[in-house]
Structures are given as structure tokens and as C-alpha cells.
Amino acid sequence: MPVFTYREAIRHALAEELERDANVVIMGEEVAQFNGAYKVTEGLLAKFGDKRVVDTPITEAGFIGAGIGASMLGVRPVMELMFWSFYSVAFDQILNNAANVRYMSGGQISCPIVIRGPANGGTNVGATHSHTPENVLANHPGVKVVVPSTAADAKGLLKSAIRDNDPVFFLENTLLYGEKGEVPEGEHIVPLGVADIKRTGKDLTIVTYGRSVLHSLKAAEILEKEHGASVEIVDLRTIRPLDIDTVLKSVAKTHRVLIVEEQKPFASVGTQLSYMIQREAFDELDAPIHRLATVDAPAIYSPPVEVEQLPNAQRVLKAALEVLA
Amino acid sequence: MTKTSSATAAKKPAASAKAADFGQAPVNAKLTAAQKIELYRTMVRIRRFEERSLRSYQAKKIGGFLHLYIGQEAVATGCCSLMGANDHVITAYRDHGHAIAVGMDTRALMAENYGKVTGCSKGKGGSMHYFAPDKNYWGGHGIVGGQIPLGAGLAYGIKYKGLKGAAMAFMGDGAVNQGAVHEAYNLAALWQLPAVFIIENNGYSMGTSQARSSAGQLAKRAEGYDMAWGQCNGHDLYEVRATVDEHLRMAREQCKPSILEIDTYRYRGHSVADPDNTYRTKEEIEEYRRTKDPIQVFQNLLVAERVLTEDLIAEIDTAARTEADAAADFAEASPFPTVEDIQKDVYWEADNPSERKSQGRLFFD
Description:
Number of domains of chain A: 2
Largest sheet of chain A: 7 strands, mixed
Oligomer: heterodimer
Number of helices of chain A: 11
Shape of chain A: globular
CATH architecture of chain B: 3-Layer(aba) Sandwich
CATH class of chain B: Alpha Beta
CATH class of the largest domain in chain A: Alpha Beta
Helix content of chain A: 25-40%
Shape of chain B: globular
Mean pLDDT of chain A: 98
Helix content of chain B: 40-55%
CATH architecture of the largest domain in chain A: 3-Layer(aba) Sandwich
Radius of gyration of chain A: 19 Å
Number of domains of chain B: 1
Order of helices and strands of chain B: EHHHHEHHEHEHEEEHEHEHHHH
Low-confidence stretches of chain B: 1-16
CATH topology of the largest domain in chain A: Rossmann fold
Structural class of chain A: alpha/beta
Strand content of chain B: 5-15%
Distance between the termini of chain A: 40 Å
Number of helices of chain B: 14
Mean pLDDT of chain B: 94
Largest interface: A-B, 57 and 60 residues
Strand order of the largest sheet of chain A: 3-2-4-5-7-6-12
Strand content of chain A: 15-25%
Number of strands of chain A: 14
């Protein structure tokens, strides 16, 4: 199977969807002539021209709002946020207009947009650029939220997102863009709302998504080698719709749960998961549900300390041992 | 007065043009007597609908807010009367006039006010959120100025699909200071989108007068974006049509956006919850009613043209009242949505389960 970076996999998904559907338009800051702030869209302008790959000014509310308006007429904009952190200046467009227009029109209007871009900490860019808003986004019925952890998932999920008739928010990670992985050849589609078991095990279930999957996999290896513990890792891949069934099936097997997420703890994705697991699998639990999240403060700049604020393999290991104790 | 910022902008009527001259503008001169009567009838239907809505609100049949269009009828009627197959409309929460002007059924509108399942948005949007995509009417939006980027997007969609059309994006004078509006102006000008940004300037953003909220002339801000702009009297239907027609043609034929400020006036408060006693005088309202009422102004013109007669005026008024009452009766007799309906129309996929591609839970409890 060919190996590509996460960045290349996303680019391939974009190119294939541009090729497939003349209504797909890539739009965003520096996506065309500059080849993408993170080079995700590199080469797309040259291949598809400036009608399909459109540079916007720094005007998130403006261009996302315009994308929403265009989508109501059947255009399928795939809009890049240079950082998902900038969603706050387009909040009204994203979460009042895109999320609500179908409902408020009694189902008459669809909003088939994708907004994609990186949403992560760990790059020493301070609190304003390090938001992970998947919980905030998923709090809004009407939207779908995707957080891929591997190249193959990123490609397959993005293709599903672009073909979806509801607004899909696709959260990437700058620290994953260079990560390589096998990507199936040909048309590779991953449906939204299907979790993936990234590692099978029997003693502990780690429910996670995004870059935290990588930390969890590392921790699981150490747990197996040094502690003889067998860990199962459930990668949610999609936050909403949520494949809770795969989570519950794993809990029924291991009876112990650790949630690992790059989220501030209060009302996070993990909060929702914990509620659902205790509600639907209470009798399966042999220990309280445990959670490892970002240390609860705005993202710190100081490079070595930021590593400790976020989930990392050592923190996952420590938390897992507590659940297994 | 009309001004343009670029030499390529369309020629505009002279500032001194009189009302009668606007009646001779090509877009008005070609109107048949029957078409003029229909324009008059639309304005009367809007007013009677709004008055009936107010009574229903006072009778506690309507919840939330109710922003009445009374006094502004010539704006929506004039603008929407010029729409072709590829022209689109989006507006804010004072959206009843535009909805009637594009041809929506007043029974569905009143039912929406009442929160009934027969409403145009199935009782899910309410008075501020009317939609009729089949009539190129894209709402009905609740957040001041939030609809303007969507309007630019409609224009983008028209251009992207290679259609000859225009998007009219309406806002009140209170919206012009919102950042999203300026972002949309910039994009429309930068990308040469076929948009007409229409400011319905009724003088007050809620209870704050224009003088207390906005620096400079509202439409003139177009110059900062190298866009054409204009201003016209919104009390005269002929003038509205003559002016908007030029802006629409500029958009359709040259793909040039513009801003048009239309002076108008609302007789009622910002919403019906507004006691309307802190920011303007009763005398001011009376003065407008007496001298500039858009229905009276057009009625006078059409009587002078011998298009309207006293009998016809009375007949149109009676029919409009009957229609508004019938709309209220229809709303009253209609059922509310059910609790099961709450979670319908949230996701396209959930509403089209046979075509659903995703898996997993879409809803949570």
C-alpha cells in the first residue's frame, strides 16, 4: 500500500473531489497562490485554476458567510481556516447561519459546506492559536465534526465530508501534517460516524481521537512491554455523529475506560462520552471512568511546559496505570 | 441624490428628478394598468397583514418578537417586483414585507407567526425566519448584519454558475456598523459579485437614531470599497423601482456590486415590545403618515393616472383585510408541530434516511 503524509492525503482528497464535482470550490486564506499556509493545497491552483481554488482576504466571517450563501445555491465550498482558532471571528456565520439554516427554514435549505483546518496545541503559538473547539462545534445540532488521526482516515473522511449535504467541520492537526501512513489506492472513502479500533486489547479501553491517538498507541506499547497490560484503543474519528456503539462494545470487553483528549476538561467531548458510558454500560464498569485532558488553563507558550499541558505518552501511561490499579 | 464612485458605474437619475419623472422611467413606463394595480395591492396586502399580525400578537397568539414593516411597504414591493428568474433576496428579521412581495402565501406566513406546523418554516423559525427558496427568498435572519455575507455568497453562487442575475441583500440602517457587513462589501467589490446591498434606512436602529449610531452617510461607505452607491426616496414606489432597476442591471449585466440606501420610515416600534416613547415624537410619526405614507403616495399617483378609482381602492382594501383575516383563521385552525417534530429538519441525512451515508448517533439525550 502506498505511503503518504497526512498533508498529502488531505490534498489528494481535495484534488479528487475537485475532479469529481464541478460545484466543489476550495476557498481560504493563502490556499491558492501561496500554496497553502501549511502547504495542504499545494499545486491545486496550478491544476484546477482560480475559479476552483480561491484566495480570500483575511476575512473569516466574510468568506465563510459567503461560502454558506453560495452553498444554498448548490455550490459546495470547502473552506480552509488557517487555524480553527480563528473560528471565533466567524462564530455567527458558522454556528448561527450554517448550523441553523436548515432547521429554521423547516428543512427547505441545505448547507453542504466543509470547513477544514488545523485545531491543536503543541506548537508554541500561545492561547489564541491553540484552540480545540470540537466540543463547542459538536454542541450545535445540525453540524458534523470530524477529527482524523491518520493519513488514510484524513483522506477517506474528507471525501465523505465533501459529499455530505450537512455542514461538516473537519479538524486537522499541524503536528500530524508530516506524519506518514499507508493510504489505500483508488477511491478511498471512510464514512462519517464510524470509530476505528487502532489497537486491540482486553484490560483497558482508551477512547481517544486526533493526535492523542498517537500518544495512546505509544503508551499502550509501554503498558504491554513493561506492565503486561493489554490496551484497546478506540479512535472515534468523528465526534458527531458519534459511534458510541463501538465504544460500548470495547468497554464490555475490558471493563475499564480511560478517555484521552486534547480538550480543556470542562464540558469536553470526554464529558459527553463519560455520561454516555456510565448511562449505557454502568454494569460493565469495574472502575470509575478516568479522563486525561489538557491541563485546565489557556495554552501556555513556554515550549517544554506546553508539552506537559497537553496529553503526551507519559501522561497517558500514568493515567492508564491509575485506572488499571 | 445618486452618486457613483467609478466612471464605469451606471448612469443615475438626476438629484432633482420629481416623483412624476420616476413614473416615466422605462421600468415604470412599461407597466400596464393591471400591473400597477397589483403593485398597489401588494403594499396594501403587506399593511393589512402586519396589522392583523399585531392584533394576533396582542391577543397572545404570537410569541417572541414581532417586527412590523408598516410604513416601509414601497421598499420590498418595489425591489422584489423587479426580480427575474435568477435574482435572489435575503433580508433580516423585519422580513414579512419581502416575503409577501416575492409571492409567499400569507396563510403560511401567519401560521409561522403562530408557531404552527403549516407555517412556511413548519413553526421552527417564527416571524423573523421566513424562507422560500422556491421563490429565491433566502430568509429572514435574526442577527443584525449576519445575513449580508450570505447575500454576497448568493451573488457568488450566481456568478459561479454563469447565470445572469443579482442578489439583493437587505439590511436596516442599524446593520451598517457590523463588521460582517463590511467584510461582505469588501468581498463583493474585490470579486465583482452581482450583489445589491440595500440599506432600508428607517432612521432608527432599534431606539437609537442614525445620528447617534452611524458616522457619515451610510451608503457612501461604498466609496471605501470602490463600489457604486445610490440613495433614493423609499416612500415613492416608482422611485424605488427606477433606482433599484439601475442597480440590478449593473449587477446582472456588468457583475458590479453596489450599495443603495433607501430612505423609509416605520410607524411602529422596533418590535411590538418597543413602547416607542423614548427616541422620537408622536408628531414625527404623524408627519410621516400624513405626508409620506408609501401607500397613500402611490394611491395618489395612480388616481391621478386614472388607474385607481375610489371603488377599486375600497375593493383592494377589503380584499386585503379579508386575506389577512383568512390567514389568521388558517393559522388558528392549524395544528402545532409535535414534540416528535422537534428533531426533524436538523440534518439532511436524518430527514433522508434511505440516502444516509454516515453512521453513529446524530442526536443525544
